[in-house]
User: Fold these one by one.
Assistant:
Number 1:
Amino acid sequence: MADRVKVLVVDDSLTMRGLISAALKSDPEIEVVGTAADPLEARTAIKELNPDVLTLDVEMPNMNGLEFLDKIMRLRPMPVVMVSTLTAAGTDVTLAALEIGAVDAVAKPAVASAEAFHELIGKVKTAARSRVRARGDVPAAAAAPSAYRPAPNHVLAIGSSTGGVEALLTVLSGFPANCPATVITQHMPATFTSSFAARLDRVCAPAVSEAVDGAPLKPGHIYLAPGGAAHLELTPGLSPRCRLVNSEPVNGHRPSVDVMFDSVVRLKRPMTGVILTGMGKDGAKGLKAIRDAGGRTLGQDETTSVVYGMPKAAFELGAVERQLPLHRLAPAILDLCADPAARSVA
């Protein structure tokens, strides 16, 4: 990018502010324009410095990071990357922040050093290119249908990355309890996927769980790939099961959307693939393989994507049949996966 990304670092720890700033300053495309110890200082600094991106601690005095983020997203929407502790409480708050509109999150390392925040550099650059909208500007998602019957043996696979927490919550909240058997790969740190699956299970009608090796694929169940350690695949046969494969990252990711999509194709069953918001191109080739094999495919449109990277790559490859805004995806997905005798017009 022509201009450096201006970043404001907000953290109540002087040490953390220094480490985060040092990590970001190591990249010539980033400029740390200021730091703040709490939301009150941050509010003043935002007005004076007009940063492109905010890094925000979860737990701070005077006002916690979640409350401050909510105010930002309502009054002055801007890209925010959360910096979270690895505790269960910190993870839950970070997921709530991603729902509110934070672009991404990183975990504070067990051993504090500038090198440990290297991952934050890429996330800040991605955040600077993201599309952030005020809370209330996003259309409400469609309610789950009162009567629905999935097609026998139909498999639904969904891939997402940056912005995917909010997108998946929107889509899955429109699913009925008897949704098609669904597998999801969301690029997310390993510490977050278990809590995210539990969160989805609480707010969505279907049963949602983090995928475990050997779990049988069943309608009414949604399986989320665990973060970091393995790829999620499906084993072919009369009774497909989840398989966690500890192989090398693909497209820089483990789990990879492409790996999951490719395994769905090998099932040789009726299938639908969906690509949601995210940076990069993971999932584009796999979605094309689904379409080439006779499956149906959908992509999130540019306007509603936080980062129009993965959907764009898939669309340009010819992998996407239709692009739709986020709030229209759930009805369209369900229509493609419905029993033909009960199918409605999406």
Number 2:
Amino acid sequence: MRYQISGKQIDIGEALQTHVQTEIEAAISKYAGRPTDALVVFSKDGPAYACEAVVHLSTGLTVQAKAKEHEIYAACDAAVEKMEKQLRRYKRRLKDHHKERAEPVEVSGAASYVIAGNDEAHDNEPESLQPIIVAEMETRIPSLSVGEAVMQMELAGAPVLVFRNEKQANGVNVVYRRDDGNIGWIDPQG
């Protein structure tokens, strides 16, 4: 497994890197088969340290967790613990998903845009209805079943996930977390 461990404006020593690798390896190996790579970023947030960890699994799914603590090692341990809790919740589904899927999740590319918000300081009418694009990025849209999409959204801690529904030819679907705590599913073909 490849590890990319870095710090934002803080130095990360060898001991911390070894600790991160050991903890992630122990947590992931219990629940998910073969992780391919891990990205861990430490930063200073006021008096606390923040740890953000993202682990990509060989099946194409991604597990993500964030934590803040006053000690840098404690921040790492808390993030790994959150990740382990997510994986524990989905252990049976991950194992079943791994058996059913002979190949990794198919992913297609798409453009992602950041659009400028309305400036509330100006009450003037906009000159045109065309949005102002602030940034353009490449994003990936996975081909998943609805159950896998819900699991991926929760593993990543995301409020929404856009995916191609495997059960449909070219159907793009959306799952999202509703305000009432339930999961919503948008199926334009259904």
Number 3:
Amino acid sequence: MPWIKILHIATLLCWCGTLLYLPALLMASAKPRVGSSFHAPAPVILRFLFTHVATPFALLAIMSGTLLFIVGQLTGGWLVLKLAAVTGMVFCHVLCGWLIVRLEQEHLRGLMPASALVAIMAATLMLAVLVLVLGKPFD
């Protein structure tokens, strides 16, 4: 069981990192650059990061968490709230994908505030998961 916890924590850290980085990169990509000598196609980088880094880590984190739940026979009111927070993180992940598609289609209206909102929501949900897992209230 310790290797499952290690896998879960490692993949969760990577997923959370990308879930915070994606909205920041979206906001930077939506800003017009004047006089910049470096121009990388941000939508390509964003799509790669989303599909090849964030999504696999998200799936591994959720699968290893499910395995931890089954093997460790975890129960408690805190777990229900934690699963609700993780569901919110999945929603933030999906919103990042939607915002990437909007950026690719050059629909930039409202992209920056939406990205900021996703980042704030994701950070709040991550903090909630951390508090619930470490504190285990309602046990």
Number 4:
Amino acid sequence: MANFIIGLTGGIGSGKTTVANLFAEQGIVLVDADIIAREVVAKGSDGLKQIGDKFGPQMLTPDGCLDRAALREQIFHHPQDREWLNALLHPMIRTRMLEQLEMAASPYVIMVVPLLFENGLDKLADRTLVVDISPKLQLQRTIERDMVSKEQVQNIINSQSDRQSRLDKADDVIDNQGEIDALQAQVLALHNKYLQLADIKNS
């Protein structure tokens, strides 16, 4: 297991991926729950087979991949199906995350998890880092990035922890409401801090 784990989270549109990639530029290994979540339902996977068995072939694209829009629609209208899906995928994602954390070889590792606190994965982390922006900016950035309706984005925001409770639980916070230079400076300062903390833990 990586000796020092940072749990990185933030609401939708907050810039978690941008922040994580800035840490990666410093040579830090990333374990990204979103990437793993795509892998466990990839074409030919057991996860995808079980989804197809449960909901039928309409959940698959013509080339046999997951039709994400169809699945989103299904679980949006049927909360019990969302629960079923979470019960299927969360253990798969957790297992693969633990495997990747086990193999991570950098001085510390960044574990990127959108629902870090909601799913109790903060328990795996030595420290938690929240990327923070205002709800107004969240809406604006996500609508522009994903080309989705305001209502859809608002539903996702409502399903996540509210901003204040995330901030209350965070050990460290990055403000991502400014320019990229300011973001880089914050990441570099935290990178140096985490190197020191990892060094202390391992000594």
